[in-house]
User: Fold this.
Amino acid sequence: MYYDPDKNNHGLPHNPFKSCVIPRPIGWISTISQDGIHNLAPFSQFQNLTFDPPYVMFAANQNTKGMRKDTVINIEKTGEFVYNMVTWELREAMNITASEVPFEIDEFELAGLTKAPSVKVKPARVSESPIHFECIHYQTIRIPGNGLMGSVDVIIGRVVMIHIKDEVIGPDGRLDILRIRPVARLGYYDYTTVDSLFQMVIPGENELLLTGLEGAIKKHNT
Ligand SMILES: Cc1cc2nc3c(=O)[nH]c(=O)nc-3n(C[C@H](O)[C@H](O)[C@H](O)COP(=O)(O)O)c2cc1C
Assistant:
């Protein structure tokens, strides 16, 4: 089958679009308002953009009232945010922080989470999460969309500090992803977790190409 997204003539009981780009990592984004109110919300339209220096991006639609989301308002006012990784143990807390609550509500408190101070930015880190990136706002790209919620604010941030809990670094010095068990979004109300790994390298002898694949900054700079 094929269908035109402008017409949504897929003929299926549920829109399949979100199931076609999967799995999507969840950027659990913490921010702070100018008045010092902490905010936390998940965004699965999230990705790293590059690695040297590292940048990340996420796309926030408008809220159900057609207004900019609190996360976007805070980032544009303060210029800072933190990415926190969502794990299997944190799935319920993450879900609570997706509630559309008044600006004055601190979603860390709402979800029973602990704040850990950041090093270079003001927004707090989710202490229970094993990985955090402190980020500085680089740019917002606004893409028009349909209806109340369709328009999107694409936030790009430069990663200025990376935190990894020692206990998720394995004896081989690599992140123990199967222990971390990150959660990712699928379509519908579905999620998945990372429960298996396999390895593959690009064929040929091009060492620089492999350096990019691995994200080995020192090697590609020398
Ligand atoms: C797993 C998950 C992923 C989500 N991904 C997005 C997303 O990519 N973009 C978006 O606009 N909203 C997304 N949401 C909804 C927001 O988290 C929700 O609108 C939240 O209330 C925004 O909070 P804020 O107004 O404090 O920024 C997602 C919700 C969940 C549970």
About this structure: The chain has one domain: 23-197.
